[in-house]
Specification:
The protein is mainly α and 272 residues long. The chain has 2 domains: 158 residues, Helix Hairpins (Orthogonal Bundle); 54 residues. Helices cover 82% and strands 0% of the residues. The protein is built from 6 helices and no strands. Helix 2 runs antiparallel to helix 3. The longest helix has 84 residues.
Amino acid sequence: MIKLFRKMSKYMTAMFTGKFDELADPKIQLEQAIIEAQDQHRRLTEQAANVIASQKQTEMNLNRSMAELETTSGRARQALLMADDAAKKGDATRAAELEKTAEILANKLIQVEREVESLKQMHLQTSENANNAKQAVKSNSAALQKKLNERQKLLSQIDQTKMQEQMNRAMTSLSATVGQDVPTLDEVRQKIETRYAKALGSAELHGDSVETRMLEVEQASADMEAQARLAELRTQLGLSSPTAGAGEVGTGTVSEQMPQAAPSTTEVPRKP
């Protein structure tokens, strides 16, 4: 049962992690990564500062111990010279006291020498650590700067990607269903073409009907009668045909081509 719960827990964690990564804004995640890198660089810089501070403190202790070593050595020599001078003068008590002082200074000199040697080793180690810390900070600073430069490139790519996705959605919406109540462009075009085809077919059917042909014959007869009457009126008025000056058209004039209508019973007065 415990194993089952563990498996379910890991499965749910993986599922929600995947969903989160899918829905998360890349810009925000990018800023989070940059902030984390900056925090790491800050922590590294603080650690390097502590290492360098330890090296500086060791160096100051070494310089102080070396100064103390030089002072103690000088005092021990001075005590020995004074003890020798007192012995030459026959002052044994003074000479013994100075010898004792020189011995104490010699013991202190040994301790200071050991301290100086230890501080020298420590100084070498802290100096090496400080150099490594400086190099680490320098390398991490270059890496951070590279990430900052890359951030600008990634932000530009994110904007370009969003624009391309919007263009893709816009192009897709032209051939895909937008919603339940909104037809696609293909459906609208198909509907228009279907109605247009039906209209053309209906026009062809009406054009071939008997009623249409009878109307065409009646219209042609009316036109011929009107042309004949115009020709008769021009003859009575002594007017020439409008096509006479432009040459023959076809095989004759309109009056020659058209059948003569019966003369009208109404007299048209001639011009004087």
